[in-house]
Amino acid sequence: MPDQRLRLGCVTTLDDARSSLPDITSSEASLRRFLHGLPGVDQAGAEARAAGLATRSIKTTAKQYAIDLAISMIDLTTLEGQDTPGKVRALCAKALRPDPSDRAVPQVAAVCVYPDLVATAVEALGGAHRSVKVASVATGFPSGRTSLAVKEADTRDAVAAGADEVDMVIDRGAFLAGRYGAVFDEIVAVKNAAGDAHLKVILETGELATYDNVRRASWLAMLAGGDFIKTSTGKVAPAATLPVTLVMLEAVRDFREATGRQVGVKPAGGIRTSKDAIRYLVLVNETAGDDWLDPDWFRLGASSLLNDLLMQRQKIATGRYAGPDYFTLD
């Protein structure tokens, strides 16, 4: 990668970048200097690039592979105030066997629920030996407007109940006010509270206003130790978009070049059709590379997407679409 892409202050080599990261995060001033030293995002260029990639066509054999890959990357999600243990158990059954009539359909990556329903999901997915992970939102999701002590307790409770992954929300108010150190410290604290659980850091990109802010928030979350960066809670419009995800994929690609550490990406919210999912897979391959085409490094946060993928998969196999009521509602 050309050194110009990183522009880490006065850093000129990748070795310099790795050694300088502790200095970057040592103070509010150095963190601000670094984040505002990142190259600006060409808005028109990012949107044109994302639009161009969205037109790529995929042939039948590759399309079936892409559909199965997308299914395996789904965080099957229910985050409603009316969620019940019964609904979560039904969702877990679908996660394990998305199409009971076809054992070749892969399982999804994870089931994502509120902290108080984590234990229910763990049990329904098979306990300690489960093959599908349990993810839990935490830290005052979706607003994040609560104290750090409550956020840490929320995280510890989810992990104690068995969550393999924690999806936290950043304090967007602090970020937009330029209090980068406060956001950094909060992510570090939640990461510590999560222990061995993977931490997905939700940027809520629909509230960040600019692509430059998305790039800065992505780097901030990665510098603080996030294992994934995630677009949205799904509660704010716009949620995931292709241009925003493009900017985040560029960030994880550049971050690995600079530090040697790979970080995952999770677009969430508004991804409802097989065409949407395949567009994201093309975007991943063309931006970050095929190292990210794996559920360990790329997830799709969705609730209704799975049924459309199953319908498209059946169309490829049989030549006809199943009715919309053929698969269970999520």
TrEMBL record:
Gene3D superfamilies in the cross-refs: Aldolase class I
Catalytic activity from the UniProt record: 2-deoxy-D-ribose 5-phosphate = D-glyceraldehyde 3-phosphate + acetaldehyde
Residue stretches spanning the membrane: none
Keyword Lyase attributed: yes
Coiled-coil region list: none
GO MF, any single term: deoxyribose-phosphate aldolase activity
One cellular component term from this protein's GO annotations in UniProt: cytoplasm
EC number(s) from the headed UniProt entry: 4.1.2.4
Keywords per UniProt: Lyase, Schiff base
Pathway: Carbohydrate degradation; 2-deoxy-D-ribose 1-phosphate degradation; D-glyceraldehyde 3-phosphate and acetaldehyde from 2-deoxy-alpha-D-ribose 1-phosphate: step 2/2
Class of enzymatic activity (EC top level): lyase
Pfam families reported in the protein's UniProt record: DeoC
SUPFAM superfamilies: Aldolase
GO BP terms, alphabetized: carbohydrate catabolic process; deoxyribonucleotide catabolic process
Record-stated family: Belongs to the DeoC/FbaB aldolase family. DeoC type 2 subfamily.
Protein name stated in the entry: Deoxyribose-phosphate aldolase
Species name: Jiangella ureilytica
Gene name as annotated: deoC
